[in-house]
Amino acid sequence: MDKWMNSPWFIRIFSLLLALMIYVSVNIETQSNSTSRNTVGQTDVETVTDVPVVAYYDQENLVVSGIPQSVNVMLEGPKSIVTPTKLQRDFEVYVDLSKLPIGKHTVPVKYRNISEKLRVTIDPATITVTIDERVSKDFSVEVDFINKSQIADGYSPEQPIVKPNIVKVTGAKTLIDKVALVKARVDLKGVEETIERESKVTVYDKEGNVLSLDVEPSIVDITVPIKSPSKTVPLKIDRKGTLREGLSISKMEVIPSEVTIFGQKAKIDDIEFISGIEVDLSDITGNTTLQVDVPVPKGVKAVDPAKVTILIEVEQEKERTFGQVPIEVIGLNDAYKAEFIDPADGNIALTALGAQSVLNAIQLKDIEVYLNVSELGIGEHDVPIEVNGPQNVRWRLPQKEATIRITRNE
Length: 410
Known about the structure:
- The chain crosses the membrane at residues 9-26.
- By secondary structure, the protein is α+β, with helices and mostly antiparallel strands.
- It is built from six helices and 31 strands.
- It has helices spanning 2-5, 8-41, 79-88, 173-176, 265-268, 356-361; strands spanning 43-56, 62-65, 70-78, 92-96, 103-108, 110-112, 119-123, 126-140, 142-146, 156-157, 161-163, 166-172, 181-187, 195-204, 214-216, 219-224, 226-227, 230-240, 247-255, 258-263, 274-280, 288-293, 300-304, 307-330, 336-342, 347-355, 368-372, 379-384, 386-388, 394-396, 401-408.
- Strands 19, 22, 24, 26, 27, 29 and 30 form a seven-stranded mixed sheet that branches. It has a five-stranded mixed sheet with strand order 6-4-1-3-7. Strands 2, 5, 8, 12 and 15 form a five-stranded antiparallel sheet that branches.
- Strand 13 (181-187) and strand 14 form a beta hairpin.
């Protein structure tokens, strides 16, 4: 080993290696220092967009207009400060209006919580604001119908009900003084029944321009009664069964005698009366009062009233005879004539059975006795005798048929 160390070649090689190590070490340190100096001294410019603007003023008593929602902030300075400032956005942009009087003012847009080492530029740098007194006033809400002409055929809106019908409008006094109308809208397109809607309240000036004001409540409930097409029709009472022997109806009255039906015009126009109410005569033993439901015909939405009262009065059955009542021939073609064979004179006596008060009111002109020959041809025919007369009367005939001869007119 000592021999190697004392060798001139060993010393030369060792010295060369040591020189190389010192060179590399110095070069690395120089590059590191150079990089560090470049980073610290580098300048950067960044723009932070859409930065909200905070306004300081008496919000309880004042209203301010002209404040932008956001501004752009340009940051210039060392990159090591600009970059985190942009990313964190923990600074504030604001305008201080707390000491300004009512009126119009041009004010600077300020900032805080940004390093003093940065140069800050705000766009816009100043803004013009208007400070006004904040006031509140109550207004009644009107309802504006839209598509009123497109409501279902025959239907019409009645007075709407708005809840609440008074709202509080708050804002700048100069705008409050311009309020002309406060409205909520309801769409009537295709409507054919009462509707309930929620509607936004909108404030207008006299020119019809919308005013930007706070409304409390901003949504109201609206009920619009819709008047349906209607028609008044009578009721037809159907009878079934038979009264007990010896009784007769002297009066049957429906209260009311007519009802109102509601529905689409095309469907109610063809309805002339309402049927389907039945009275079972076999249940009647004396004067009776019935409460019955009114049937709702197909296509009808409602009937008013939904119930009616039927008053029935009965008396002991009596008789009254009418002699020589002429028999009419109906349904005979003009090309033919009819001749009575039995009864030969074309007259018949008949007996009416009913309540005495009803019988006393019958006149001869109230009685129709006829033969219907509309389907008969030339020749002799036995035709049923039919009687038409006042209600609540039974008829007794001496014969059920009449014999006639039909011939052609000469």
